Amino acid sequence: MHTIHDVGPRHEHADGARLSAPPSMRVDGVTKRGVSVQIKAVLVSTVLLGVALGIVTLVLLLGVAPQVAALDRMRAADRLHQVVAALDREMVALDGLVADRAARPRGGVDGAPQGLPSSLVAAGIAALAVADAEGARAWDGTGGPPVGVPIGGAAGDAPSWPGGDPLEALRALVAEGDGAAVRGLIGTARGPMMVARWPLTAGEAGAASGGALAMGRWLSDVVGAATPARSGLTVTLRPAVGTDPPAGGPAASTARDGHGGSGTDITVVPGPTPDTLRAVAVLDDVSGAPLALLRAEIPKQVTPIGWRALGIGLAVMAGASLLAILASLAVVRRMVLTPLVDLATHIRAVTSTGDLTDSLIETGRRDELGDLANAINGMRHRVVRLAYFDTLTGLPNRRLLEDRADQLLRIAHRSDQKVALLFLDLDGFKAVNDAKGHGAGDSLLQAVARGLKQMVRESDTVGRLGGDEFVVVMHNPAGRAQVEDLADRVLERFRQPFQTSVGKVFVGVSIGIALYPDDGTDLHGLLGKADAAMYQAKTAGGGRSAFLNGDQHRQAADSMDMTQAFREAIFADQLRLVYQPQVDLESGSQVRHEALIRWVHPQRGTIRAEEFIHLADSGTLFARLDAWVLRTACEALARGRGDGAALSVVAVNLSTRHLIGQDLVGLVRDALGRHDLSPRGLVLELSANSVDPSQDEAMRTLTDLRALGVGIAIDGFGAGRVALGDLRRVPATILKINRGLVRDAPRQDASVAIIRALVSLGHDLDMEVVADGVETEAQLAVVRACGCRVAQGYLLGVAS
């Protein structure tokens, strides 16, 4: 036997079986496409590149840019240092010249004061003064005015230098007569002068030496000579204002000792334009007081070069990064995106055609994409299993079963063959499920499925429609006898226990059989007739098989129509409750009323509960029906009247299936609370034929209902599953004697004895005993004589 055939277009699942794709599985969906992964990767890479370049730029700005600026400041300080160093050299040269002339009589000058010797003028001497030993003026003379670098005032205005006449300042220097050599700067009204003084070491015509010689040069001339035009420096002299170096702000930098020479300080500050720096040296006079500021405007060179290098570096980095990104994207596109697109195309093809058995995805890769392809293949196998196979038993589900049966019917039509359809419904499965739990029920269904697969041929198909219903499709049976033989073997197997998770379990089966083409030519018709035949087999007592003849088919159709009509009746407001009193036989008062359900059928009129209540108990309508009965009875109880009867206490009949897994306590509490009713006004009647004292959950539900304050009545006691000894487990408050015992009591002494015993037992257990079905005076007399105090029946009051 196999569950799938190689007929027509096929699907293949994990265990090697093949099946066709039902048309219902073929869907055509269009999904709106968003931004592609490649574009997202480009965007993300671009953002990351921008962030990286931003971080690098920030690092360079914070780390490298200050260093570049520092280099430019050092260069500016060094350039001005070169000028200061040249001044130092000129000072040394002047000092040497003065020393050399001091060794001559009167410093090498003769005659009355007059212009300076041409040799001294050529040497740049601007003034000369000689004093004798007593410090008196011996000789002096001056050259021209300063012609070197500009010597403007502090704000660049007209010269305003501290000091007096240059020659007087020089005379004062030689007149000091302390005998020491001096060199340095002195201030004059015409600008600072570089001077040197030496004592005279040779007297006139053999006279003793004495006196001093001093010469001076204009500082601006010296600076101008030390600053060639091609150097690019713009040097100026300004009077020193105070002793503090010029304020340079955060960009100021000072170089000392080795840059300034002779202890001169050099300060670098921002220049008048963004691309220049200003280096300033403070020049002291011979007394050590600040005299002049030597200021140079120096164009920046390192910073522009640094910024250009930085820009070029960032551009190269960005270009290299972009190329790397493009190369990476190309690799990703080839190795990842293209295979993903192929996978998506394949999946869309499967989605559009619904053909889950399209060729498997083969990538030949052992990486993550290979894992993805394998996962998709595995998912497809799993989807096939979920779509076409019952998850509990592994048998084909309704969809696959119908598809397989349709294929077999088409083959049978083309080849003039036969097809048999066996519809199986388990007998007593609900009792097993209720008594032993849903786990045991599932285990039983699995065992049944295994047993059925072992009994059919390879060409036959076994499927599960749902619940406890199975179908066997026989392909081209040899005849009716072969179909009956299979049904008999199935029935014989069901007479043996099935091994389940809770041990061995007995369960029966009813089988309905339909044949193609005798009973129908399409699957829907064959299933309907096989279902009707199964229902006839079950009605006849179960544990048998049946073919559907004409009369049986009409009866089955009527039953199915009745079932469908009853389903509609619940929603179409065709049900109503009538109320029959239960009477106290001593006082004649009405103790309570039992709510009895009636179906007002549009064609058949009013139908009593006995004719249709089984339709609810055999299906899943019991819960909805019980909820309606409770709600309607509580509404009538709240009004105090129901269908013409005055109500104080109402008894309602409920299905015992509601005791397990249905939250009956919550349903009752909600119905009472909706109308603010006392639980003592409600009695729940349960049939003794279906109450099972061994079901722990059912007994817990009854106990909870009693704790709520609701009365519990066992209906039909004396002929059901509740034995006398089980009464101690059932928390009942009322026993209703079976109406069959009451009916037979006037003519059967045994029935009288049983009634008397039940009444005595009930009273001893502090239960109220009600005789049900009292319809004659003779029956009433018997129940009175047996000690029964409450009775119900048409003799005492009809339902109204």
UniProtKB/TrEMBL annotation:
Please, which domain of life does this record's source organism belong to?
Bacteria
Quote the Gene3D superfamilies the UniProt record gives: 3.30.70.270, 6.10.340.10, EAL domain
Q: Look up keyword Transit peptide and say if it applies.
A: no
Keywords attached to this entry = Membrane, Transmembrane, Transmembrane helix
Q: Which InterPro entries does the UniProt record give? A: Biofilm_reg_signaling, EAL_dom, EAL_sf, GGDEF_dom, HAMP_dom, Nucleotide_cyclase, Rev_trsase/Diguanyl_cyclase
Query: Residue ranges of the HAMP domain?
Result: 334-388
Q: Where are the transmembrane segments?
A: 41-65, 309-332
Q: What name does the UniProt record give this protein?
A: Diguanylate cyclase (GGDEF)-like protein
